[in-house]
Design brief:
Layout (H helix, E strand, L loop, with lengths): L1 E2 L9 E4 L3 H7 L5 E8 L2 E8 L2 E5 L2 E6 L2 E6 L5 E5 L2 E3 L2 E2 L2 E5 L5 E7 L3 H8 L3 E4 L19 H12 L2 E8 L2 E8 L4 E3 L2 E5 L3 E6 L5 E5 L2 E5 L5 E8 L2 H10 L1
Antiparallel strand pairs: 1-9, 2-8, 2-13, 3-4, 3-12, 4-18, 5-6, 6-7, 7-15, 8-11, 9-10, 11-12, 14-15, 14-21, 16-17, 17-18, 19-20, 20-21
Length: about 240
């Protein structure tokens, strides 16, 4: 995303002076949001209106027809609101949950823009913060024709089977369940693009699959778990995953 101008009196970036439970209560009022996690070469995004957001058992639980995410709160050191992100002339502000080393654990981006975001956050403005450096894009180039991750997604698509795709990223986990209708290679990634779910899987990230209970873990080139898992929900998806493993 690119730098974008903002049009209200709120700072471009500020600490959210709220507890996790108070911040959770704001999420349903933001309209359509994108909840994002990244780990192991994969970015996992759920998109839609948050229907429930509660703190329970030491974790933030975000739910609804388009959401299924959990964030353990013990590592969360601070919550930040950022109003500087934009794309194609539109501003997409977000709430960031960060740990004590300032690592991003989970982000919640307001897809309906500044108006509902600013209205929800106006009463929770803490100290102004400097914007962190924008990370350089890791995409670009062509996805290899024999990329293992793209091959796996295509096999699942061709099977027509129901699958759960989940990503565990540190203290956070998010899942989607459904049928993969299309796999789109672009900018060096294998992509699933749906109205309620995006998966962006960097080429070369999949070194193999390992059975783990009723699911399959995606491994990196060294055989380590990446956090991305595929759980078949019917015989067709199970066959596709077992063949790939």
């Amino acid at each position: 995303m690119t730098e974008a101008t903002t049009g209200s009196d709120l700072p471009p970036r500020f600490a959210v002076a709220a507890t996790p439970a108070q911040a959770a209560a704001l999420l349903p009022s933001l309209g359509r949001v994108l909840v994002g996690l990244s780990a192991g070469g994969a970015t996992h995004e759920r998109i839609g209106v948050v229907e429930t957001a509660v703190v329970d058992g030491g974790a933030l639980r975000i739910g609804g027809s388009a959401h299924d995410a959990v964030l353990a709160l013990e590592p969360v050191a601070r919550i930040v609101a950022d109003r500087t992100g934009g794309m194609r002339g539109r501003v997409f502000p977000r709430i960031e949950f960060r740990d004590g080393d300032d690592r991003l654990l989970m982000s919640v981006t307001a897809m309906d823009g500044l108006e509902p975001f600013d209205s929800a956050l106006a009463a929770w403005v803490g100290a102004t913060e400097d914007a962190p450096p924008r990370p350089e894009s890791s995409g670009g180039g062509e996805l290899a024709a024999d990329d293992a991750g793209a091959g796996l997604l295509e096999a699942l698509r061709a099977s027509g089977g129901q699958v759960e795709i989940a990503l565990a990223a540190g203290p956070a986990r998010q899942a989607w369940r459904g049928v993969i209708e299309d796999m789109k290679p672009a900018m060096g990634f294998a992509n699933i693009i749906r109205s309620d779910f995006h998966l962006h899987w960097r080429g070369g990230s999949l070194g193999g699959l390992r059975a783990a209970g009723d699911a399959f873990e995606a491994l990196d080139a060294e055989g380590g778990a990446t956090g991305l898992t595929f759980r078949p929900l019917d015989a067709e998806a199970r066959k596709a995953l077992a063949t790939a493993a």
